[in-house]
Amino acid sequence: MSRVAGVIRMQLKDWIWIALPWIVLLSAFFVNLILFATIDTEEENYTGALASIFIILFTNGIMTINQQFSFALGFSVRRKDYFWGTTAVVLILSALYAAALTVLTLVERASGGWGARLHFFRVHSLSDGSAAEWGWIMFVAFLNMFFAGFVFSCWKRRFGLKALFALLVVLALVLIVVSVLGTYYEGWDNLYRLLKPLSVGKLFTWLIIPPAINAFISYLLLRRTTA
Amino acid sequence: MDDSRPIFLQIAEKIENDIIEGVLPEESQVPSTNQFAAFYQINPATAAKGVNELVDQGILYKKRGIGMFVKEGSRSVLIEKRKALFYDQYVLSMLREAQKLGITNAEVADMIRKGENG
Amino acid sequence: MSAVIEVNHLRKSYGQVKAIDDVSFQIEADKIYGMLGRNGAGKTTLMHILTAQGFATSGDLKVFGEHPYENEKVLRNICFIKESQKYPDTFSVKNVLDVSADFFPKWDRDFANSLIADFQLPLKRNVKKLSRGMLSSLGIVVGLASRAPLTIFDEPYLGLDAVARSLFYDRLLEDYSEHPRTIILSTHLIDEVSRLLEHVIVIDSGKVILDEETDTIRGRAYAVAGAASKVEDFLRGKQVIHREPFGGLLTAAVIGAGDGRDRHEAEGMGLEIQPVSLQQLVVHLSKINQVQGKEGERA
């Protein structure tokens, strides 16, 4: 068996990829459904609980370095194979989950919010376009969440905890400087004017860049990481 | 197994003892290297070295594809060898100890006779 | 004999600390090696580098003729059972075996199952919930059933009782006889495994201080004991590796076979010749190495 396929099989043996996110999401869904079905209300009910599955992808990005990376390296797996196997798992699952959530959103819409005016899967102004666009937005969001967690975890693993704090401080400073400068030079207005004509779907197409960069940096960091 | 002496020598000695005591009669098959290794929990290469030591001395010989066998006449060869060793290891050091304690050779001989009867 | 591992002038330092200090040695194919030395001598660091899980500061390293770093051809032939191996929190014993089957090309499932039965490992139990001994047993099962051409065990029997250790030696020898491969046992407990080893490499303070066939080392030194003045007379002109005075008595370890002329000479002087075990010998040599190391620093 190819080593990448081995890593994919190894990852999927862990419940954090499939069981955990759906248990959390679906239990939140049913609690909300029962809640809003029993209290008879005329209002439209939004929950925001959909975010939980995205947050789990973020924490998985952090955890897999400590859990599966050390394990795999100890079992004679190349860093490269770990990276590509894990990336494959994330790409495949993100696509499947985005598709599944899109279907659930459509059902929700057709059933009038599950007969209880519950808008669990709908997100205001993001999910109002076509089904394909909504699916694409969620797919890109999954990748952003996972690789954000992944790159920080790789950095910590490579350089240690102090270096992680240092990185966070530097990033915070950069953010402050950029926002101050942006306000000073009226950059925010220009940015808004630039982005305004874009649809959310197009906007998220641009957002494929950050996870790609994070993935690339993660790979470079892993190349020099020890068990 | 005694960890302070080469183990291959100890294996060779064990086989020698078995031949002298008749446990391994002449023309009988000697256990395989792997059997020695498993029984004494020792490295098979070390066991093989012990067996080969006796092949070199002409005590054992190899039948191709079957294994190692005890050569005819090897028992008496071994007994002669052990007799020489016996004189060197036991008799000489006994006489040295006797000298230290002021026991004459005649007295030692008496003691040996006493040991025979007792 | 082809070399499975070739190490030349390998160094690894953490700042000022030299964990591996100019180490060179070869490991030949299909032998059982012992990597011996005290805790913290540098064994584990060295093995991490050999398996490309750690990096050397300088020096050459070849495993199966190539550098192991990110080298699939080399790595798939290595199984390194680490004392500190981490397992994913949710993994059961069975999960670990399934993963092993995917990563070790020569994995023998039937052999693994028979070992699981021998060591009485609960297949469904979470690895996190295994005792130290069971964790060691799991490592032994993976290491043996992997049949990897280069199998390395680092302190494989922590927490194992005498029965389980003996079982490990039995299974190791049986399977090695049928499927010869290169095996490295790294340990600080020398006496018990020394019989299994064809060759030993002793590491101390990051240096190789002994690299020899085990049987050659056995009987390489002997101890002589008696009245201190007489022992000192006897020691003149001999290579002494250890002195242990006790009242007016002295026991000294000397390089040599301790037979023939030496034995006669000692007995003639009323001194007693005693054996020196491999463990004792390694301890003596380590001490000499440390003394020399300190003198080297001063110089």
Strand content of chain C: 25-35%
Q: Would you tell me the structural class of the helices and strands of chain C? A: alpha/beta
Largest sheet: spatial strand order of chain C: 5-6-7-3-8-9
**Could you say what the CATH architecture of the largest domain in chain C is?**
3-Layer(aba) Sandwich
What is the count of distinct domains of chain A?
1
| Strand numbers in spatial order across the main sheet of chain A | 1-2
Q: Which structural class do the helices and strands of chain A define? A: mainly alpha
Taken in chain order, the helices and strands of chain C follow as EEEHEHEHHHEHEHEEHEHEEHEH
Mean pLDDT of chain A: 92
Question: Please, how many helices of chain A?
Answer: 10
Q: What integer value in Å does the Rg of chain A equal?
A: 20 Å
Q: Give the DSSP E fraction of chain A (strand runs of 2 or more residues).
A: under 5%
Q: How many strands of chain C? A: 13
Most extensive interface, chain pair and sizes? A-C, 28 and 29 residues
Quaternary structure classification: heterotrimer
Count of β-strands of chain A? 2
Number of structural domains of chain C: 2
Which of globular, elongated, flat, extended, rod-shaped describes the shape of chain A?
Answer: globular
Helix content of chain C: 25-40%
Specify the CATH class of the largest domain in chain C: Alpha Beta
